[in-house]
Design a protein that fits this description.
about 70 residues; about 75% helix
């Protein structure tokens, strides 16, 4: 998580995108903070990461419901 605050803008964006790829809901508070207070590139990257995590969470929930229905 420290990399989302790095002084290198490219590294910050890569770190934000990586959090989205990991799909961990634990990253959401940090991403929401960036979305609310970051610069334009960080806001856009945080939005994409949040959406990606939400899709991952939704897929896990659907899988759990499907498993329970069997």
């Amino acid at each position: 998580l420290p990399l989302i605050r790095d002084t290198d803008p490219e590294l910050r964006l890569l770190a934000i995108d990586s959090l989205g790829a990991l799909g961990s809901p634990r990253a959401l508070p940090h991403l929401l903070e960036l979305f609310q207070s970051g610069g334009t590139p960080e806001k856009a990257a945080a939005k994409r990461a949040i959406e990606r995590i939400q899709r991952a969470v939704d897929a896990e929930r659907a899988k759990a419901v499907e498993s329970g229905a069997k």
